[in-house]
DNA sequence: CATTATTGTCTAAAAAAAAGACAATAAATC
DNA sequence: GATTTATTGTCTTTTTTTTAGACAATAATG
């Protein structure tokens, strides 16, 4: 009963996921930490089954490694330089896990393929950080959110993958309305502005930002939100469901 | 002496290239036609050697299939649905080429891997259609330019790949200055406008378009071009080389 | 040398973006 | 309960950008 059966997967191809969340004016990335790699983190990744599409594989990998389901996913780039693979580091991982593999009835040859060159398809996911409760998989010793500006040491070319994911996210933020995937179901205009300012790393004027967003005609205004703060309560908004009630 | 030695390549991964050219207010795609596939065209594609990066592989494939070298290339998407592979069609190709393979000392098992599921990395290339003289490779019976609006019957999901390449090109045209890769070294402003109008499929005002492009500060004006037409001769322009003479 | 078909460039109008201003209001303070 | 404080909601003004209009310049034609 092997976990990883070489025959079940497409060889030399992996998927790596950059999971973005937003909280407290910080754009964060969810990083599970593999038990073996002391003080080195990796992006949640995995392999593609022969009988699943790339998108399906990415969703499955996310669920397996973090417990996250039903989220926004975007394929953004393939990484395939020769230098990106690191047989030495991977060899270390395999060596440390030797006993585990042995228990599963796997011999050295069954995992040797992991040391080959790999091409990796990069996906990024956008999630509501508050709704997500990361599950720590058996492989990992932790699974936590890190500010993109203060990332820990990452293995292979994973730091580069995150950088590219962020570039892609920034570019897309102006084209598609993907930003709202990072917010809870209801939110204030200030929260939207904080999100945009954090991702694009530039300030907006409150009055003009509100006009810009509302002119998109994608939000519906709900009741006010009483925060307990000593000031006027802001309205809550919700992303409009297409085909909803609509105006008469 | 086998042409395709399974061991030399990454399995189940291919690269497909959409080569764009521009002429006569038409955006065109260069399509080699494989000898076997009667009345069905395919994108120039190939496989990735174990010892080359993805970009290197794409450049090599382009050179092998079309003779084109030193051009602008952009990776735009990976295609990996289960339906995209078509063992039947590929089987037909292999069956027809059976004798050729036999001559090369290859037995059925040596090409069987081509019938497996493939993931394909999409690249698009931008070339000056006038500078390029397509070479017809041994595999192909023709290699010609087709208007993207009047494409012939394409195998597998190649029509879809071209559509996605075009979408990506349109999106990037506003961000990067990639459009000029489709023009000759010197060109008139009208040619630039024709290019933009064709790709984006929308008209521009002559006066405003000129201002928009010149304000980018990327073109240098050369001498006038005397076309022989009964009107004012337009200026020629050239894409500024960075680190050139510059203004004092 | 007037005619024709474009090109180069200027100015005016319209639209959009940015900046400024101020009343409204929910809680805290006195 | 009046006053203060920190924001929010929204309106107006200013500035910038985009779009539209206008016309002289010019290379070949007849």
Automatic annotation (TrEMBL), chains A, B:
InterPro entries: NUDIX_hydrolase-like_dom_sf, NUDIX_hydrolase_dom, WH-like_DNA-bd_sf, WH_DNA-bd_sf, WHD_NrtR. It holds the Pfam family NUDIX. CDD domains: NUDIX_NadM_like (cd18873). It comes from the Bacteria. Coiled coil: none annotated. Residues 12-173 form the Nudix hydrolase domain. This is NUDIX domain-containing protein. It comes from Emticicia agri. The lineage of its organism: Bacteria, Pseudomonadati, Bacteroidota, Cytophagia, Cytophagales.
């Amino acid at each position: 009963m092997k976990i990883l059966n070489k025959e079940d997967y497409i060889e030399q191809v992996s998927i790596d996921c950059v999971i973005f969340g937003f909280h407290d004016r910080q754009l964060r990335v969810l990083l599970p930490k593999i038990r073996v790699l002391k003080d080195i983190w990796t992006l949640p990744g995995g392999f593609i089954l022969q009988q699943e599409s790339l998108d399906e594989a990415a969703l499955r990998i996310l669920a397996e490694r973090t417990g996250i389901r039903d989220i926004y996913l975007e394929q953004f780039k393939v990484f395939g330089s020769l230098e990106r693979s690191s047989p030495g580091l991977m060899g270390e991982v395999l060596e440390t896990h030797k006993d585990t593999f042995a228990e599963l009835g796997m011999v050295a040859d069954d995992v040797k393929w992991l040391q080959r060159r790999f091409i990796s398809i990069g996906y990024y996911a956008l999630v509501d950080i508050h709704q997500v409760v990361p599950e720590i998989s058996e492989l990992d010793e932790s699974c936590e959110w890190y500010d993109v500006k203060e990332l820990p040491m990452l293995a292979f070319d994973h730091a580069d993958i995150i950088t590219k994911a962020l570039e892609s996210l920034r570019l897309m933020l102006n084209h598609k309305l993907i930003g709202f995937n990072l917010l809870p179901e209801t939110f204030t205009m200030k929260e939207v502005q904080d999100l945009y300012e954090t991702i694009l790393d530039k300030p907006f004027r409150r009055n003009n930002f509100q006009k810009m967003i509302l002119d998109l005609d994608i939000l519906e205004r709900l009741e006010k939100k009483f925060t307990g703060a000593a000031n006027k309560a802001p309205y809550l908004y919700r992303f409009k469901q297409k085909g909803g009630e609509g105006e008469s």
